[in-house]
Hints:
Elements: H1 2-8, H2 10-29, H3 33-40, H4 44-53, E1 60-66, E2 72-79, E3 82-89, E4 95-96, H5 109-120, E5 134-136, E6 143-149, H6 154-169, E7 173-179, H7 186-198, H8 201-208, H9 222-232, E8 240-242, E9 248-250, H10 255-280
Parallel strand pairs: 6-7
Antiparallel strand pairs: 1-2, 2-3, 3-4, 5-7, 6-8, 8-9
Helix pairs in contact: 6-10, 7-8
Amino acid sequence: MRQQRLVGLAAIFVLVGLFLIPGNIAWGANSNKQSRTKCETLSEKDARAVLDSLRLNEAKILKIQMSPVQGLWELAVENRGDRFLVYVDCSRNFVMPGPIIERQTGIDKTRQRVEELNRERRVDLTGLRLDEALVMGDRNAPVKVIGFVDPDCPFCKKLHHEMKKVLEKRTDIAFFLKLTLIRQSPQVEQKSKAVVCNRSLGMLEEAFEGKALPSAECDSKELEENTKFMETNGLHGVPVTLFPDGSVQVGFVESSALEARINEAVGRMKGEIKKQPMDAGKK
């Protein structure tokens, strides 16, 4: 399986190799101190110029560091709430979005790094209504986790099963599911309206299983509000999971990893609460 995956990524390696050749030739041909210094450093001013040339004028630079590939700089960027990487060579003339694949392990280092960036981000949950959400578990459970899904999303279905596994072990957790039209299509809209208008978790699960849902219309603005919330916070796909401290999980995870992220979030919140009395006395 691993060999097949690596073979399938052979084209990517070839492209990355071709991309790196000009930079390496220039670096090796000009061995003076100025040339070496240019590759050993990438200032924020230079990084800003690269992003501006890509029409990412409003993007925020989160971090600049050397990528796993020698001679290729990694820019961690946030643009309109979306976090991603841009790779820049030593000449500052070539850029690429990735992925960078580690040959021996087959690990997508770009994806791994983006996941780290998303673990660091926080979404302000203030004002996010839960009264119309579909609830898995006890609505009054102390730990509330929010999930954005749509009925036609296969990874939402997979994550739904993993949420059930967590609930089999944890009665202190509840999942609040909010449907969204972030993936625009007539089919998604029709099924989502049916689920929201009936406020039916059962109908959502039927949709996950590929069953047809009756059309429905109602006065609820939940779909529009949920979609706007996602767009405002740079959340562009489903599933998305928001933990109690506002931390974010993009995409599917297994139940063990999901529970671990929940525990991390709760632990951080408890730590912050414990620090408050000490900080409150400082002037």
